Amino acid sequence: MEIQNNTEAQSLHTTAYPEAINETKSVINPQALLWAIIAVTLFIIYRQQPDKDTTLGIVQISLVIVSAVLAVVKLFVGDRKLTYAPTNSPVEKTEKYYNLTLESDIRQCLKEHNTSRLNALKTDDTGGILVETLESKDKAFTALRMQKYCPEGYRPETGWVVMS
């Protein structure tokens, strides 16, 4: 795959993945159900207490509210799962940050498909450059994309470069 430099067109597709990657979102997050059960259980315990105005009662109702809010949040934030379509292997997404001075080296590594040289570069927490990596668990697929920091956040500088 060729490195693309058209950042204006790519900025519209910042969350797009390579064609070989399938993204699925679960309908119901199991954590939402767990938090809902905890909230209901704590509410039942709270209702059975004779004196609800004590410190313990206030703490219990606070925990009920927190658990209910977490259940609602988890309900709307579904689990996203990435898989490599040909082998149906789960894909793991990682991010590494580099100093802006390494931009030309990173571009060269992507152009040459040289992941060992890229891994040898020193990472930097200040993060002027972000390199996203998608790698299947069975190691059959690896893709990288470089993004550069601008005041609005990170924007893609290259398209996804498929390494394997």
N-to-C span: 10 Å
What proportion of the residues form beta strands (DSSP E)? 25-35%
| Structural class computed from helices and strand pairing | alpha+beta
Helix and strand pattern:
HEHHEEHHEEEE
DSSP summary, beta strand count:
7
* Number of helical regions: 5
What is the topology?
Elements: H1 7-10, E1 21-25, H2 30-47, H3 55-76, E2 80-84, E3 89-98, H4 103-112, H5 115-120, E4 129-136, E5 142-150, E6 153-156, E7 161-162
Antiparallel strand pairs: 1-2, 2-3, 3-4, 4-5, 5-6, 5-7
Describe this entry's structure for a reader.
- Mean pLDDT is 82; it is low at 1-14.
- The relative contact order is 0.19.
- The termini are close together.
- Strands 1, 2, 3, 4, 5, 6 and 7 form a seven-stranded antiparallel sheet that branches.
- 37% of the residues lie in helices and 26% in strands.
- The protein folds into two domains: 7-25 and 83-162, no CATH class; 30-76.
- The chain is elongated and about 70 Å long.
- It has 164 residues and is an alpha+beta fold.
- The chain is built from five helices and seven strands, in the order αβααββααββββ.
